[in-house]
Amino acid sequence: MSHEHQADPLKRQRLRWRARRGLLENDLVLARFLDCNETSLSDDDVAALTQLLEMPDNDLMDLILARKSLGPDCDTPQMRRVVALLQAA
Fold this sequence. Notes:
The protein is mainly alpha-helical. The chain contains 5 helices and no strands. Helix 2 (24-37) crosses helix 5 (77-88) and helix 3 packs across helix 5 (77-88).
């Protein structure tokens, strides 16, 4: 498990920029999530989070609020881990 991205302030800044959303509720959850977890995220976590950030805002919010679950195309242990961390944020 590599934390290479954590050593690079530019990579951390890009991750935070990608986490900015059009839906305020997502913005708040993602900012709180990164404030609590950013330095402990593995590269696999960052990859899963990046994939989640490609989702439409409402779908992401439904996942965070546990109103829906991951689709079969992205239901992996790493994705479930990151979703659980987001739900706890």
